[in-house]
Amino acid sequence: MTPTPMRQRKGWKQLEAHYLASGTRHLREFFAEDPERGTRLSAEAVGIYLDYSKNRVSDETLRLLEELADESGLGERRNAMFAGEHINVSEDRAVLHVALRAPKGTSLVVDGVDVVGEVHEVLERMSAFAERVRSGEWTGHTGRPIRNVVNIGIGGSDLGPVMAYEALRHYTRRDLTFRFVSNVDATDFVEAVRDLEAAETLFIIASKTFTTLETLTNARSARAWLVEQLGDEAAVARHFVAVSTNEEKVSDFGIDTANMFGFWDWVGGRYSMDSAIGFSTMLAIGPEGFYEMLEGFHAMDEHFRTAPFRENLPVVLGMLTVWNREFLGCETVGVMPYDQYLKRLPAYLQQLTMESNGKHVTLEGTVVDYPTGPVFWGEPGTNGQHSFFQLIHQGTSIIPVDLIGFARSLNPLGEHHDLLMSNVFAQAQALAFGVSEAELRAQGRPEREIAHRVMEGNRPTNVLLGEELTPRLLGSLIALYEHSVFTQGTIWGVDSYDQWGVELGKVLASAISPALGSDIEPDLQYDSSTNALIRRYRAHKNKGGSDVDR
Ligand code: F6P
Predict the structure, then answer these.
(1) Closest residue to atom 16 of ligand 1, CA basis
(2) What is the dihedral of CA 493, 495, 497, 500, to 10 degrees?
(3) How far apart, in whole angstroms, are the C-alpha atoms of residue 525 and residue 508?
(4) How many angstroms from the chain centroid is the CA of residue 302?
(5) Cβ of 269 below 6 Å from ligand 1
(6) Segment-wise mean pLDDT, segments of 10 residues, the chain, 550 residues
């Protein structure tokens, strides 16, 4: 049965009427009429406290959003995901990253196979290998222990590993050096290995498909570098491991499949940091820390699976994102971690959210007549406050912001942490309530400043608070965003698990690259702009200076 298009759903129509009647109400009014709002509109689960009271919603808004989520089949689709159904319809695949963190002995079935056992087999192999590397038992070709780990991957095979490494740096072995190479720009690889000793370096080639151009190009350069440094082809066996679903391609590349850690087609790249793709994370924090992170993911999965919508953190966060996008017209969402260790979280979330919900058709292939996934972006606070927050406070676009902070710092030092966290609370306050003309006059501000200083407020924020950044907490935080994306995608009725939009560029680039490298002048049949750009590139690429056009 074809589902009712989103804007024709009863819940959506009610929300539209509700927005027309009350959508311009100010957060000042909401807080004035309910002294309990700040605690009432909050939810807490598995170590994360979510204050969503500074969103432009009333109880009625939340009730209607729940109705819309319900009518959109959120409960059924969530159950279908956990049941291993092929909810990724355009690729005809199950979506079962939740199985990656299911405890040993539990069961999740995909296409008739209970996959939890397989997951734990791989985890155990990864753990054994990681212990050998960390203890120095696994040595390089010349017998020296591994001191450097270089993860080569891109997209989900890079962003999760690098984000987790940075996030959990406090828990890492400081005598091991970790580098992450993703860009096909040679600078990335060259700079990553320039000060490394090949004899002490382990490369992890991380690629779900093992066909990704950037990763394979970097992997080939890594192999050439290693062989050149160590003077022996045979060295590859002790210095390369692979993480992939494609055993054949790994073997073709020349990596011993005994040193390969697999995963499955039901794990999307951007949902894979807790699969073998996280092998660098395991090397960095040790198997115990990795398992702890998986427990954090699982705890949030269980919360998402069982908690009523109003108490369900991912559902609430997802519904608010839809509300802000649909009714307040917010085109972007800012994510500002007030924790330096989470500096790569915004980049990670960009792929998670935008590759998932940046879609123009529904699951049935019908072009949507409403906006879908917003742009996600961000920077660690307080740095962002001293650059782009001006626009968030006084610009003409409403940008909802997630502010993420912790009660305790992993590096307590003087008053730093109180200063950091006072900014979290102050930003949420300033964005919500602003400052009025009357208040500015009462403060005795000079007349010429008044109009410029006015801040209308009424800008939505979520504050996410944890006690301390641990592997467990990180797992829960990432699962929270994963399931929030699921909630949004379900309401919009899109396939959050495919990514066809990235294909065309890849095809065109591989068609163009021979024309860039060829010694013979190519017969260019592209559009006039592409032809001119290629000609200009070719004319300049072999010249030493910048005198070509003079
Ligand atoms: O091009 C997009 C993409 O397919 C992502 O979805 C994925 O995370 C990334 O490329 C890397 O893919 P792979 O792990 O197969 O190398």
Answers:
(1) 207
(2) -150
(3) 13
(4) 20
(5) yes
(6) 91 98 96 98 98 98 98 98 98 98 96 96 98 98 98 98 98 98 98 98 97 97 98 97 96 94 97 98 98 98 98 98 98 98 98 98 97 98 96 98 98 98 98 98 98 98 98 99 98 98 96 95 96 96 58
